């Protein structure tokens, strides 16, 4: 017999009745029924009920065990009485009568219970992550992550992609402020960096003549923490292809993502037609470049109905350059109580409030109500209703000013309205490509032009497009949004040195600086670089959606906390003096 087990804790069923077996696992819970012990024994695969009474030689030892002790059981498989069968688990038809037991690893008093899925402070869960990972929900999330990665790999191989690994220790990136630096012992005073992404390497792979590359790539970025982002490292499905257009990339990655979400989505539907929405339209309709299309609400510009109207606040706003009024339709939101609640929401978000109109049936026909309706009159109110396609029992909310000042709040208000009115389909995944990103943006205070997205993207129109206003230049850049999250970012790359130099020049980087920062890539592009493009999908965020979790730490095996600390391993830690001397480094005390 094997030293530890003949079966896992999910293997046994009615066909094994009478067999002598050996199981190993953790004590999930103990139930003492007055001289009869019932122990749920758990391993990675499942749970088996173990029975022991005073007639067993193992009884005295089993009485000593507590939750989360790791033990080995020798026993005989028995059929459960019909009225005691547990149909919820694969082993529910049987139990194992214990005849022998060995403690493989005793456990101290537990800082958190594994049985019961109780709530604990995140600090406790992260400090004792090895216990937290034994809990069913988190354990299943991590297994799901493994299954998703395997599925993605297989789908990429099936499309003829080769998996290559790129360096983990490399040079600092264009976004150097977010790099994790690694001091060089052999080159004192110089530093490597952990890669924020394999961006340059995967482009060089294309220049090297490989046609389809991918990897499950670790990326390292010194980020500020967020619920949907790991503050130190994350994994992405990274891919690049030669001789492709933007549409080719879309057609390649859609079946990979769609198939994965259909397989692991727990029965939730996946839209098969993925719309392509311009960045400009996404901002207008949804207030964000990662819209949740499960919510059908689309915002609209209604400035014409307020220009010169009796509502002085909006009328005066529209006399200023760059301002507009947007409406957020709210089907079924036509009550004063709901409108007041949304107005309070806007005030909590830092705005004076949101104007609103709602339409009700007064017996003699439909009536528009609310302060705005009174101020702008029935003719303008009716024109707004018709433009938005609303009717009795519906409402609309209004925000005005420069879009940059209210767009974020408008987007959040749209999401809140959709959820509160039950308009958002919670049982689906809705994907959309966001395209036509602006290449450049201007600093609001200084007016300085800089890249707004990936600096290695090909501008639409090539070199000619870079001769005019930089703020009008669009790039072949794209994101894939799903249910309010960005899952993919990518681009068709700028593979021509002359276009690259001009693109960086507009952002204030001279040719000499470009050669210094990206010398390897600039050099390679002078030797027959093919047109190429690709993208990267965030695996952590994908699994977070599939597992229906709101916090990305629920799908990462050993995550950092919100302060980028590993409470279990004690990182970051202070270096030893010997290490600093060898690296010729000195640590300055923090500024007071």
Total beta strand runs: 24
Please list the strands of the largest sheet in the order they lie side by side.
Answer: 6-9-10-24-23-22-19-12
Shape: globular
Structural class per helix/strand content? alpha+beta
- The number of helical runs is 18
Give the terminus-to-terminus CA distance. 65 Å
The average pLDDT score comes to 94
Question: Helical percent range?
Answer: 25-40%
Per-chain topology:
Layout: E1 20-32, E2 36-42, E3 47-53, H1 59-62, E4 70-79, E5 94-105, H2 122-127, H3 129-132, H4 136-158, E6 162-163, E7 180-183, E8 191-194, H5 199-207, E9 212-220, E10 233-242, H6 246-264, E11 269-270, E12 276-278, H7 279-286, E13 300-301, H8 303-306, H9 312-317, E14 324-330, H10 336-348, E15 355-361, E16 366-369, H11 371-388, E17 395-401, H12 403-420, E18 428-429, E19 431-435, E20 440-442, E21 449-451, H13 462-465, E22 477-482, E23 485-492, H14 497-506, H15 511-517, H16 519-524, E24 532-538, H17 539-546, H18 577-583
Parallel strand pairs: 3-5, 6-9, 11-18, 12-19
Antiparallel strand pairs: 1-2, 1-4, 2-3, 4-5, 7-8, 9-10, 10-24, 13-14, 14-17, 15-16, 15-17, 19-22, 20-21, 22-23, 23-24
Helix pairs in contact: 4-6
What does this structure look like?
By secondary structure, the protein is α+β, with helices and mostly antiparallel strands. The chain contains 18 helices and 24 strands. The chain is 29% helix and 24% strand. Strand 1 and strand 2 form a beta hairpin. The longest helix has 23 residues. The radius of gyration is 30 Å and the shape is globular. The mean pLDDT is 94.
């Amino acid at each position: 017999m094997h030293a530890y087990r003949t079966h896992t804790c999910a293997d046994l069923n009615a066909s094994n009745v009478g067999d002598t077996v050996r199981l190993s696992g953790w004590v999930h819970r103990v139930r003492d029924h007055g001289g009869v012990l019932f122990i749920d024994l758990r391993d990675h695969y499942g749970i088996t009920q173990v029975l022991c009474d005073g007639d067993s030689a193992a009884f005295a030892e089993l009485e000593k065990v507590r939750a989360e002790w790791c033990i080995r059981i020798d026993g005989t498989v028995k059929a459960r009485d019909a009225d005691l069968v547990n149909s919820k688990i694969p082993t529910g038809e049987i139990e194992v009568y214990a005849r022998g037991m060995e403690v493989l690893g005793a456990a101290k008093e537990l800082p958190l219970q594994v049985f019961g899925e109780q709530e604990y402070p995140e600090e406790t869960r992260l400090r004792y992550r090895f216990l937290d990972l034994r809990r069913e929900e988190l354990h299943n999330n991590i297994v799901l992550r493994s299954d998703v990665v395997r599925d993605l790999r297989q789908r990429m191989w099936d499309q003829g992609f080769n998996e290559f690994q790129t360096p983990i220790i490399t040079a600092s990136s264009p976004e150097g402020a977010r790099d994790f630096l690694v001091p060089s012992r052999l080159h004192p005073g110089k530093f490597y960096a952990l890669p924020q992404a394999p961006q340059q390497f995967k482009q060089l792979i294309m220049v090297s003549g490989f046609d389809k590359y991918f990897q499950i790539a670790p990326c390292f970025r010194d980020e500020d923490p967020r619920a949907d982002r790991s503050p130190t490292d994350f994994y992405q499905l990274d891919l690049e292809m030669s001789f492709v257009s933007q549409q080719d990339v879309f057609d390649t990655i859609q079946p990979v993502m769609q198939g994965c979400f259909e397989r692991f989505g727990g029965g939730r539907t996946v839209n098969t037609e993925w719309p392509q929405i311009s960045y400009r339209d996404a901002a207008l309709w949804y207030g964000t470049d990662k819209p949740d299309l499960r919510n059908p609400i689309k915002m609209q510009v209604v400035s014409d109905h307020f220009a010169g109207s009796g509502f002085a606040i909006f009328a005066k706003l529209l006399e200023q350059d760059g301002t507009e009024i947007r409406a957020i339709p709210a089907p079924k939101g036509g009550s004063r109580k709901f409108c007041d609640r949304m107005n309070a929401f806007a005030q909590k978000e830092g705005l004076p409030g949101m104007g609103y109109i709602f339409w009700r049936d007064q017996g003699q026909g439909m009536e528009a109500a609310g302060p705005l309706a009174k101020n702008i009159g029935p003719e303008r109110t009716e024109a707004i209703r018709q433009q938005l396609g609303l009717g009795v029992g519906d409402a609309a909310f209004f925000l005005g000013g420069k879009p940059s000042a209210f767009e974020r709040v408008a987007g959040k208000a749209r999401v809140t309205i959709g959820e509160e009115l039950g308009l958002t389909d919670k049982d689906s995944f809705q994907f959309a490509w966001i395209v036509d990103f602006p290449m450049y943006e201007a600093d609001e205070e200084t007016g300085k032009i800089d890249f707004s997205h990936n600096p290695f993207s090909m501008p639409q129109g090539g070199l000619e497009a870079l001769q005019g206003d930089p703020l009008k230049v669009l790039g072949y850049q794209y994101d894939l949004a799903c249910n309010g999250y960005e899952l993919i970012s990518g681009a068709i790359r700028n593979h021509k040195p002359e276009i690259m130099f001009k693109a960086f020049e507009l952002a204030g980087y001279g040719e000499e600086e470009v050669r210094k920062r990206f010398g390897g890539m600039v050099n390679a592009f002078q030797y027959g670089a093919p047109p190429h493009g690709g993208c990267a999908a965030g695996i952590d965020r994908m699994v977070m959606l599939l597992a229906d979790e709101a916090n990305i730490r629920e799908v990462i095996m050993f995550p950092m906390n919100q302060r980028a600390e590993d409470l279990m391993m004690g990182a970051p830690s202070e270096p030893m003096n010997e290490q600093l001397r060898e690296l010729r480094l000195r640590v300055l005390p923090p500024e007071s």
